[in-house]
Amino acid sequence: MCYFDYTLYKRVKKITFILKILIPIIIIGYIFLYAFTPQSFISSKPKIIIVNKGSSLKEIAFKLYNKKVINNPYLFYFIGFISGYSRYIQAGTYYLSIDESPAEIYHKFVNGRVATSKVSIPPGLNIFEIAEILSKNHITNKKLFLKKCYDKKFLLSIKVDAPSAEGFLYPDTYIFKINSNPKDIIKDMVNNFYSKTKKIKPDYKDLIMASLIIKEADEKFKNSVYFISSVIHNRLKINMPLDIDSTSIYAMNVKMYKNYLRDKNLYKVIIHIKPQYLKIKSTYNTYLNYGLPPTPIAEPNLEAIEAAMHPAKTKYLYYISTKTGKTVFSDNLSGQIKHIDKYLK
User: What kind and span of H or E run contains 180?
Assistant: First the structure.
């Protein structure tokens, strides 16, 4: 004979009821805990994550998992699926780290908070040095950037009627997106140039001269730009070679870049020059050629451009930079020799 234990039945029924409520609460709580808790409490260096256009939520979840940004791709996928946010994820390059919660990551994706980098381009750098800076900061590909700097069709579309973008990439502090199209970067820098120079409207010759001035001047002695400009103007008037080392350095960089395109090998930007390189056969060599080089050799700032357009009225033909960085001028060779003996020996 079978006996029915009513007390046990009530106990089991009560436990079952509690479990029916408790288990969903635990699951939902775990999901919320996962969604809003960083995958690690240890801060780590942000990683670059590229979300391609048309990528599925599953692909994104496993990309994050493989990069060790999240520890459970299935839960990440499930959260995106039930929230409906997955359809709003924007393509782009993002900085993410394991100290960000999945909810924070979704917030970045949905709002398109792509990775950016703040870079400073000081006056006097050339396009080759700028390409190095942009590449090191993951902003754009060095080779593609340089190619666009020489793309005449593209340059004309942004109102640069010149052999290259040299001289038109205004030195300033910029915030660029990571993995940007080089066209966008060049366009932004050129627009900044036109914005800064709209009142003075320099011509191409002014830019060439300003680029020489900014390479020769010392930032600590700002007035020197007007006197250096006077030396260049005075030498040009009497058809005297400019004898500026930085033009030969630029010639070597142009040569290295051409070899780089031809051989597909990496190159190193030349900053200093050996004496024998001053004899390099190039239109940029101002020891062997009279007049200005064919293009600017660096990016001048507004002050250097104004100095090129309005030089100081002097008879100076020579100058040297002392060990402290000060520029000393003279109007004849004997004075130059005296200054060399006094300040450099």
Answer: none
